Amino acid sequence: MALQTVNKDKSLNRQQKVQGYKILVYNNLIGHSHVKFLSTLADTLTDAGHDVTVFFSVIDHTDNKTALKTTKKTIFASQNEDILPIFHNKDLKLKDYWTKEMGPVTMFNMFNEFKYGLSKQCERVLTDKQLLDRIRAEKFDIAVGEPFCECAFLFFEAIQVPDISSRPSLQQLSIMFRKLSGSPQLPVMSQEQRRLTRTK
Q1: Arithmetic mean of pLDDT, 160-188
Q2: What end-to-end distance do the CA atoms of the chain give, in Å?
Q3: Quick check: 144 pLDDT over 50?
Q4: Which residues partner with 187 through β-bridges?
């Protein structure tokens, strides 16, 4: 199958015939809709003939459904014990989330709690040298993550993936999250493009 690829030595727009890429999908195990979105993306790439592995970072240990159907390769990073209290009685905390009006203070507190959980789990993932070495040794061609999870892209840098892609499940939510958190826009970028960006 023909795929658009980045050729570092010649043209950036050259079409190359390849059998398939080795792709890593970073999927936070929290929130069924987000998990399902990235798992469906992984299955679509698998069905297209690519060699896909899904990395699940376990933020909420009660969300144990990966939603994968055809992708068989998975790697799990266990939950940081520091965030266990956040998700204690989670269903009770969130049972009125979609049905009751919430003021800005309540929303802000929930956002901060969620962001704290993401940052602590990120710390757990990025300090696990054995895990990083193991995944780096796989030599993935491309890595895919959601833009609201900045950790995914720090992780991709740490394991030295040459090309990365950002795929938002909800565009408006991603824009809102970036504004609230100060996260940058994360486009599809090649290793060469990232190098040029750093040197400007």
Answers
A1: 63
A2: 35
A3: yes
A4: none
* Per-residue DSSP letter, 84: G
Rounded to whole angstroms, how far apart are CA atoms 139 and 104?
44
Domains of the chain: 2-199 (3.40.50.80)
CB 80 within 8 A of CB 123: yes
C-alpha to C-alpha distances, 169 to 35, 36, 119, 123, 140, nearest whole angstrom: 10, 10, 20, 24, 23
- CA dist 125 and 115 (Å) reads 15
Beta-bridge partners for 73: 53
Contacts of 138 (CB under 8 A, 6+ apart): 22, 24, 53
User: Which helix H or strand E contains 189, and what residues bound it?
Assistant: strand 189-190
Element (H or E) spanning 158, and its range? helix 150-158
**Percent share of the chain, pLDDT over 70:** 58
The residue with tokens 């959601």 is: 146
